[in-house]
């Protein structure tokens, strides 16, 4: 599976922070090195080879783990010789498209998978396997290599479950923390993050764990409440941790450590951001959304959607920079914001809607100016994706397409009602909270449905876990059950 991004020169590597896709492989990765284009331009950062096929190479940046895809013809003679010699010395790798964290490789709700069906049969894609025994919760799975990782429960405890890619059979399980009441929606709600042989996960009671990917054995653990004085809302914690370089980023809430950065190797604090104390009021309380990383106005920062609104925090020191309040409501802010350039879009439900704001820096001051606000974009739990200049997402009843530049509603359709959304290979996979799943072409020209099916073995709970597309497979988690479909 490959996403083609044609770049004029490797000099652009230092500017890439957006929607490049990641494909991982099970074979031993290449070493980090500088690469050169056919016109003699040398990369400004080191990259390693991740995959080579279909006349393209996929190279992962050392500084931020983003992936760049280049045609072989754009590489220098020396680099093509390096690849030829490496291939001669190594067996052909088996590559799979991974979904290693919340909302996929780049945390934007987009899968790098290609070659997927553009139309479904009447019964939908083929169900390969389904397993039960995951207990309660709304966790969206992560998929890396030949293993699926998802959070669930056993009795009154929450666990990470590792399941086999081929048949769903159990590999290992590792305790996270105590199952919370979750305001009537018990169980974990986040997605594990898989990075460098370790897995990071947050339980609904605010327990953050790091375990070994190989066997689930514990490495370190933190408590949002005990270690950081965390403050959460009625439904407790629903966050998925962000791994950025050597840091784990999460939002315990509280006046002094509302957003924290920890060392990913041992959990030691790097900084605590006093968002609650600086911005006051509802900014001291964690929301239910998960943090992203972006560079805005030349400053790398972490974007969090807290109870009071969206905030930007300096990535190096944790200094609170700016906030955008309009998309927040007083009940629950669940959907992860998206960033493009210096603009951020965020939305919530409960009568609120969604807006896009431009963030600018003038001297030492940060300014936020709203560009548009769409009352109808009441995103509850299902998030939205930005693709080729358009935002796609559901409100409480319909799937909508918005123009990123103007906020104009290009179309709306009942589709499967309120749900969650994932993009792959030119299409939207929309999962309604009642169990229907639809395939919709991602185009601003109009609503074009390419098929739908109703998930079997439904629980009596809302289907709030997002659909996951890893390689040519679709994964749906429904409380006690996990289902795997073939997209072929």
From TrEMBL:
Name of the protein this chain belongs to: PQQ-like beta-propeller repeat protein
Region Disordered, residue ranges: 85-119
Superkingdom assignment: Bacteria
Signal peptide location: 1-24
Keywords, in A-Z order: Signal
One Pfam short name: PQQ_2
Origin species: Aporhodopirellula aestuarii
Biased composition (Polar residues): 87-99
Residues in coiled coil: none
């Amino acid at each position: 599976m490959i996403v083609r991004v044609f770049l004029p020169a490797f000099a652009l590597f230092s500017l890439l922070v957006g929607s490049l896709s990641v494909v991982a492989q099970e074979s031993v990765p290449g070493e980090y090195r500088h690469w050169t284009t056919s016109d003699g331009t040398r990369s400004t950062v080191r990259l390693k080879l991740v995959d080579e096929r279909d006349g393209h190479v996929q190279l992962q940046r050392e500084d931020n783990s983003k992936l760049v895809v280049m045609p072989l013809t754009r590489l220098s003679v020396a680099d093509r010789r390096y690849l030829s010699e490496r291939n001669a010395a190594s067996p052909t790798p088996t590559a799979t498209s991974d979904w290693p964290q919340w909302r996929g490789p780049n945390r934007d709700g987009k899968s790098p998978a290609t070659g997927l069906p553009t139309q479904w049969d009447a019964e939908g894609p083929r169900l390969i396997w389904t397993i039960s025994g995951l207990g309660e919760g709304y966790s969206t799975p992560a998929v890396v290599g030949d293993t699926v990782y998802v959070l669930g429960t056993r009795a009154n405890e929450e666990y990470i479950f590792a399941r086999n890619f081929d048949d769903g059979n159990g590999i290992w399980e590792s305790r996270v923390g105590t199952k919370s009441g979750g305001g009537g929606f018990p169980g974990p709600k986040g997605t594990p993050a898989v990075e460098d042989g370790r897995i990071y996960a947050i339980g609904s009671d605010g327990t953050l764990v790091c375990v070994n990917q190989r066997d689930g054995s514990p490495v370190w653990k933190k408590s949002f409440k005990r270690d950081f004085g965390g403050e959460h809302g009625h439904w407790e914690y629903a966050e998925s941790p962000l791994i950025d370089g050597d840091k784990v980023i999460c939002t315990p809430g509280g006046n002094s450590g509302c957003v924290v950065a920890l060392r990913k190797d041992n959990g030691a604090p790097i900084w605590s951001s006093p968002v609650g104390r600086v911005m006051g009021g509802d900014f001291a309380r964690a929301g239910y959304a998960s943090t992203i990383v972006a560079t805005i106005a030349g400053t790398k920062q972490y974007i969090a959607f807290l109870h009071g609104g969206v905030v930007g925090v300096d990535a190096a020191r944790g200094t609170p920079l700016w906030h955008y309040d309009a998309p927040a409501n007083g009940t629950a802010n669940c959907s992860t914001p998206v960033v493009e350039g210096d603009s951020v879009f965020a939305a919530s439900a409960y009568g609120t809607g969604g807006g896009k704001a431009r963030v600018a820096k003038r001297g030492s001051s940060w300014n936020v100016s709203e560009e548009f606000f769409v009352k109808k974009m009441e995103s509850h739990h299902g998030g939205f994706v930005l693709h080729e200049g358009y935002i796609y997402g559901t409100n409480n009843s319909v799937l909508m397409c918005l123009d990123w530049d103007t906020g104009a509603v290009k179309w709306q359709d009942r589709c499967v009602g309120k749900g969650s959304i994932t993009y792959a290979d030119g299409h939207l996979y929309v999962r309604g909270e009642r169990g229907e799943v639809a395939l919709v072409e991602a185009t601003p020209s109009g609503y074009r449905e390419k098929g739908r099916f109703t998930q079997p073995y439904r629980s009596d709970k809302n289907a709030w876990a997002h659909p996951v597309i890893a390689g040519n497979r679709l994964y749906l988690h429904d409380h006690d059950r996990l289902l795997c479909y073939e997209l072929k």
